[in-house]
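Bifunctional chorismate mutase/prephenate dehydratase
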Amino acid sequence: MEEQLDLLKIREQISALDQQLLSLAAKRRELTLNVAKSKAHIIRPVRDQQREQELLVRLIQQGKELGLDAHYVTRLFQLIIEDSVLNQQAYLQQLKNPNIKTPTVSVAYLGDKGSYSYLASHRYFSRRAEEIIEYGCASFNDILNEVESGNVDYGMLPIENTSSGSINEVYDLLQHTNLAIVGELSQPIEHCLLAAVNTTLEQIDTIYAHAQPVQQCSNFLNKQQQIRIEYCESSADAMQMAQKLKLANVAVIGSEEGGQLYDLQALQKGIANQDENHSRFILVARKPVDVAEQIPAKTTLILATGQTPGALVDCLVILKQYGINMTKLESRPIQGRPWEEMFYIDLEGNVKSVAMQECLSKLTELTRFIKVLGCYPSEQVTPTSVPFAALKHEE
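Predicted structure tokens:
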């Protein structure tokens, strides 16, 4: 009995410390927002990676003196730095685009509650809006139609995955829309096998899933000889089916977080082909945004070259001449024009910069067609590196 009381007391102390940590984290976030306010009228980048590195090295040393592992301190503060950077960018973007409607936004996404697009929408707007009006859609085309018609403010679209590659249907639809890309998000995808009742993998003979998760979990699924796949329009549809059937032989592929919305439990976790599985989403709207100069920007464009040898290479040479880094090149067939392709290109840089404007002018001369799909803040925050000497254990 005494041991139980001691354990209860220790847990109460831990809970009190957790509350203090949360209060300190909130205070730190408030201070970093003040940093963003001080940069509002000064063209100074949000990130100073040299300072971040010096900060991490100092914190690692202080942590060692307190008996904390260097890798633990590094991971903790890399996450804190990422949160600080994204919050500052969101604040500066709000100042740059005062006409953007807040605090309530409406978002169209694939599937229903619990889908990966649903989770991405909530994650993206968690630091940008107080309330989200949700519009689940049955297809990518429906998402675009909802935004184009003015029924919703934004559409969230998955564009590529680190395991299964590009989502071609979305690229093809972007050829025919007047919407602008106004944001991006990289979302960790943690596929689980979910079930509505207590069961075992050996009892499962049917799995409901969207085509993309099936592709991303192919190694796991190929080992399950007794299982057949029933394809659904979204992961949310699959989870709804499992919830409705409540059968010991039925499971779905989805996220543990999404499954909780349907009272599903994780039968097996980490079933994706790759341990590090991420999907990149883009956010589309009827009007483009201006990207604050303090924020790293991406510009996405599509172009069609002439049918001459080396035409694409000539375009890439222009990018090199202006020092513009290309992060993505995707080719898709042009509908109605056999053997001709449209190229999608992601570039690092603000479309309003002098270099980008001159580069686009040169590309226009070389191409049959070119269109900027959007310029938007880059959400990919590279973790601050730490010298190995700082991480090394001192004997």
